[in-house]
Design a protein that fits this description.
Layout lengths: L2 H4 L2 H9 L4 H9 L7 H13 L6 E6 L7 H15 L3 E6 L26 H10 L2 E5 L9 H8 L7 H4 L6 E7 L9 H13 L3 E8 L12 H14 L5
Parallel strand pairs: 1-2, 1-3, 3-4, 4-5
């Protein structure tokens, strides 16, 4: 069966005439078909939208020590939106990994492999292969968690001519839930990421800050932030770098 047999003619013309978000395309397509055919139409729409575009590889990094907590849920929601739009996604839990502190040996600055015998040497290739990195961390004492700070410290690996080109120009997203209700609570943390990423020549393209969440799963009561996360994921799925 050809694409033209799957997609109503009027919707196909709309698609070809102007760019639309995937939600609008699917809404238009599904309005013209019977429910039994909807799954076929959805797959066809996605193929039409992205067959000529390389979808992004998105790496979600959860810096909270708490699984199924607010950071985990928010990062998952962003990845769900990206995956639904066709992106290749993966999630890392820093609490599951053995990542030791950087001791400034400068082995990597000389173009050699990091001297630390830990999991970070397995993560470097994932970072290099990704197009977009989602940094998820709650606010701990107005900064990132110790897990996330140690992870960022090891980005010194990219601070040399031999390795800088492997990360230059990538995009980054921040996902930051926190207990206090004042949005300014996250100011220092956002500035930390902004300056660090700028130094590494990584573009901070989006951020989502969710105040007023403390207990595990509190964010589930804030549907507007879950929806914002999902929509953010869809936007970055084929973000041009």
């Amino acid at each position: 069966m050809s694409h033209s047999e799957l997609v109503p003619k009027r919707s196909l013309c709309i698609y070809l005439s102007k760019p639309l978000s995937i939600q609008n395309v699917l809404r238009d397509l599904l309005s013209e078909v019977h429910p039994p055919k909807s799954d076929i139409i959805v797959r066809s729409a996605i193929r039409y939208l992205y067959e000529d575009e390389a979808m992004n590889k998105i790496l979600g990094v959860v810096g909270s020590p708490r699984k199924k907590g607010n950071t985990h849920i928010l990062v998952s929601r962003i990845l769900d939106g990206a995956k639904a739009a066709g992106a290749d996604t993966e999630m890392l839990f820093l609490s599951d990994l053995d990542i030791r502190e950087c001791d400034g040996c400068h082995s990597c600055w000389k173009g050699r492999k990091c001297s630390k015998k830990d999991d970070m040497n397995l993560i470097y290739p994932k970072i290099i292969e990704s197009d977009i990195i989602i940094f998820g961390t709650p606010v701990y004492w107005y900064g990132p968690t110790a897990l996330m700070k140690c992870f960022i410290d090891r980005f010194v690996y990219f601070n040399c001519p031999e390795n800088r080109s492997k990360i230059k120009g990538k995009a980054a997203v921040l996902a930051i839930p926190f207990e206090e209700d004042t949005i300014k609570t996250a100011d220092l943390l956002v500035r930390f990421f902004t300056k660090s990423l700028k130094y590494l020549e990584i573009k901070l393209t989006e951020k989502i800050l969710c105040p007023g969440v403390s207990a595990r799963g509190d964010i589930l009561k804030k549907e507007e932030f879950l929806e914002k996360g999902y929509q953010l994921g869809q936007r970055i799925s084929n973000l041009k770098r």
